[in-house]
Amino acid sequence: MIKLGELLVANNVISERNLLNALEKQYTVAEPTKLGEILINQGLLTETMLIHFLGQQLGLRVIDTVNVNDVMQETLPERVCRDNTCIVISKEGESILILASPSEKDIREEYNIRHCMIALAKTSTIRQAMEAYRSNRQ
Asked: Are 38 and 92 in the same domain?
């Protein structure tokens, strides 16, 4: 599998020098930081671009908007969704676990929802869907 940094360089999103600087920073900071976060903080990448390229890298679907009527919140506890920035929806007869970070995909195993497809979305997209769902329930 191609690495995210290589994918960004190959698509002329960042330069080789940008990648090397970000990787150096990644390994010199005290707290582990993801490459995408560093590039976003440096203004070289947007969250939308990051999600797009992570989806491309990992072969995952990217969800741009979530219809509140598709939300299946009962599948996962609200606290889990909030803490892990994820949500489960039903779309065209399939259950989809939408994540803001692909590193959270272990949630499928942990909560026995292996049947769910995995997709990616921006943090704000997931939070808006969770808030809309909460508002509709009240």
From this structure: no
